[in-house]
Specification:
This protein has 150 residues and is of the alpha/beta class. The protein has five helices and five strands; from the N terminus they run E-H-E-H-E-H-E-H-E-H. Helix 1 packs across helix 5 (124-140) and helix 2 (41-48) packs parallel to helix 3.
Length: 150
């Protein structure tokens, strides 16, 4: 029987209010996974690719990435492109978060390999409900190991 490792949830979101809302609602649905937040695309890339003196991805840890599309420095679509192009990271489950429902953008993210796409409703209740659904998804999904070497 496989051992289920605790999944660390990575939130790449430049809007502090949205990040807090995501965290609160994940906890509200019973997810108490560790959460690491990144405020821009460069920070999450540095973490994942181990390119900074700060925190770095660990080879023995399972991760799930919640990735905002509109971020400073490097946008979420470019982060997704780099993650899915890298052999050691391409299995990282990645869920895109955005305020747009532009079908071209949705299609582009799916072509690049995102696992899901959540539109951040401006309405608090709708956004909360979307994050609750995400919490249920996270609690049920099996996250594969990412076997990148430091």
């Amino acid at each position: 029987m496989p051992v289920t490792k605790e999944v660390v949830i990575l939130i790449a979101e430049d809007d502090a209010g949205h990040a807090v809302l995501i965290e609160k609602n994940l906890k509200r649905v019973g997810l108490h996974n560790p959460i690491q937040r990144f405020e821009n695309g460069q920070e999450i890339l540095d973490f994942l690719f181990r390119r900074s003196p700060g925190p770095q991805r660990r080879a023995d840890t399972a991760y799930l990435l919640l990735l905002d599309i509109r971020m400073p420095k490097v946008d979420g679509v470019e982060v997704l492109r780099q993650v899915k192009a890298d052999p050691s990271l391409r299995k990282l489950p990645t869920i895109m978060l955005t305020t747009t429902e532009d079908p071209r953008e949705v299609a582009r993210c799916h072509e690049l390999g995102c696992n899901n796409y959540i539109v951040k409703p401006v309405d608090y209740e709708k956004f909360s409900e979307a994050i609750k659904q995400l919490g249920l998804f996270v609690s049920l999904v099996q996250v594969p190991d990412i076997n990148g070497k430091p």
